[in-house]
Amino acid sequence: MKNLGNLKYFLGIEVLRSEGGIFLRQKKYILDILVETGLIDCKPADTPILVNHGLQISEEAKLADQGKYQRLVEKLIYLSHTRPDIAYAVGVVSQFMHRPQKDHFEAALRIVRYLKGTVEHGIMFRKNKHRGVYGFTDANWASNPIDRKSTAGYFTFVEGNLVTWRSKKQKVVALSSAEAEFRGIRSGLIEIL
């Protein structure tokens, strides 16, 4: 075995070290996506997805190129390993991989336009005085207009550093917002435990 020194770049993830801690980002990976999609000179979007986006499969909508859509969404899924800010939006667009339509492709491109303005973002791991494990959860109620399932999300901190995050559609239909929240709390607690 040979010691190559401190890790600097691995599988598209840059590892930057400083006295403050370790910073992970995927700047080159984002720039490659921008070039591939032709959005390198685009105007950045303020958010990765529109509020109350209402994305669904419509019978009369025009279909998008399935292969192109799947390649883009797969890259966005990999990018979400260091970008918790796009996790929800990527989860939404990944629901339409089997039959992408023009609106779905536009939503995926909006995520790319958001990345254009946040190319330097990533995750920082610091040495700090916070001790313990903390978790935060949230859920919306019946947000999917097709199956009326809720979406729940959580993120956890270990010693003050963000280590896990997830946004996922719940498996069953919640009968109230309280039930959706409790199911979201359950997911967060399972992760913490």
Structural class: alpha+beta
In helices, the fraction of residues equals: 25-40%
Number of strands: 7
| Biggest sheet statistics | 4 strands, antiparallel
Q: What would you call the shape?
A: flat
Mean pLDDT, nearest integer? 89
List low-confidence stretches: none
Proportion of residues in β-strands: 15-25%
Tally of separate domains: 2
* H/E element order: EEEHHHHEEEEH
Compute the CA-based radius of gyration.
Answer: 18 Å
Measured distance between first and last alpha carbons:
36 Å
Question: Total helix count?
Answer: 5
Q: Walk across the major sheet and give the strand order.
A: 1-2-3-4
Q: Nutshell version of this structure?
A:
The protein has 193 residues and is of the alpha+beta class. It is built from five helices and seven strands; from the N terminus they run βββααααββββα. The protein folds into two domains: 114 residues, no CATH class; 63 residues, no CATH class.
Structure characteristics:
193 residues, alpha+beta, 7 strands, 4-stranded antiparallel sheet, 5 helices
